Structure prediction request, 544 residues.
Amino acid sequence: MQGLMQRTPLLLSSLITHAAANHAGTEIVSQTVEGPIARSTWGEVAERAGKLAGALRRLGVGEGDRVATLAWNTSRHLELYFGVTGIGAVLHTVNPRLFLPQIEYMLRHAEDSYVFFDIGFAEIIAEVAPNVPSLRGLIALTDRAHMPSLALPNLLCYEDLLGAESDAHPWPTLDENAASILCYTSGTTGNPKGVLYSHRALLLHSFCAAAADGLAVSCLDSGLLVVPLFHANAWGVPFAAAMVGAKLVLPGPRLDGASLFSLMQTERCTFAAGVPTVWFGFFDYIDRNRAALDLTTIRLDRVLCGGSAAPRALIKRFDEEFGAFLLHAWGMTETSPIATLGRLLPKHIGLDREARYDIQAKQGRPVYGVEIRVVDAEGRPLPRDGRSVGALMVRGPWVTAGYFKGEGGVVIDAEHWFNTGDVATMDEDGYVTLTDRAKDIIKSGGEWISSIELENAAVGHPDVLEAAAIGVAHPKWVERPLLLIRCKEGAVLDKATMLDFLADKVARWWLPDDVIVVEELPHTATGKLSKVTLRKAYANHLAP
Ligand code: ADP
Prediction:
């Protein structure tokens, strides 16, 4: 017997329609690429997304056509999130920090029809656009006065396009399983692979992101969205914010500590979302300017943090400086991305702070919608004992079923489990602790050393800003750990001090064979430590 409820498809357009109808006046604040702070509202974003839809149709964009963006977090990019997907076209968010050949590869692979770009990326566009045959036009995300002078055909101005449109039309009813957003994983090895999200997947993911045991976002919130709109749907926060009518604060190109602090202060942000690297910079700024800053003006209540491990030291700082709860999340582009969240259980209430930080430093428990298990080399589930290390497998309605155009072949097994390439333990409460990406594990004499655990321990030292642990070839042990550390400004550290500090924090045989202080550590385009670069640079460091 069938139920008798309406079969309303789960579409992203329903979010912006809802926000416009019920939270029209709620602000969307952007640090623009042009310079000033711009103020919009959910009502205006909805209206302009509607006009954009009209403009796209006039440009000949239809259902399934890919439309790329090369842009920072601003209200214009947010309009594209809704305007492009709302008509059934596919928004392809490109990470502008990638190398030119990678950007070109992705535009060609996606067969993008148009690219909407921030004027700061005009040079990238000038380089790559002529090599992408599918491109029909390039739209600068700015007004007439700020148009870049590019000698390219079919260059259009975003504000002119929108200005030519009259009232918006209703959003079409699409198949909820139709593609909505395309996002390539940065592909540290091999070519980037496209993850193609459906409307249904992202809408269900929004409920998860907004829920009380998720980010607990509401219309009373003002959220600083530091995680880029080109990085796994900005972790779904834009959609969750539209769902509940939260205010959004978009930092544009300015991700430095001073700019983030200032926005947090003036816009009274109650939550923020960003990768650990961003927050290291934020606290570095606070450390260097403490006397001039009034931290009591910050209203921050919680910070969604993931993408790489949030060290305990960071969790502690957010708590001590702001009383803010760092909500540690694990996920990947392939999981939309939220898969686990570090919320507390009733039994943790009343724990002293230090014990609570230990819980928060784990990557969290599975959210409803993503099934998770840790398996051994034969694919058998391992006990949930917090000790058994194995491959982390996921499945669920917002987990990928395969990459765009079949790249990478079949990526899920017969029971739909997707192997994440991460290695982890799970404890009896379901908290996952990520020990490594499979390829980053340090394999010493047949045993595994967790690079993440070493790094987390190292950044616990008050003089350390960032740390990277890698396995380097060793004549006896196959691999041994090498620790690279970047110190805070003015701090001096040597190997002996660091080893001494680590001595009671990790097993004796985990202690790095060498510790090197470096000026800078390399990062990938998504803000993770680039271990590939480090492994190459230090490959022979422990050679006899
Ligand atoms: P990219 O590889 O393009 O940077 P993703 O954002 O998809 O893209 O990266 C996902 C990976 O990031 C995960 O597989 C995992 O290795 C790592 N990661 C994500 N969240 C965490 C976390 N909280 N702790 C440790 N590693 C994390």
Q: What stands out?
A: Residues 185-186, 232, 306-309, 328-333, 363, 420-422, 434, 437, 524, 526, 528 surround adenosine-5'-diphosphate (CB under 6 Å).
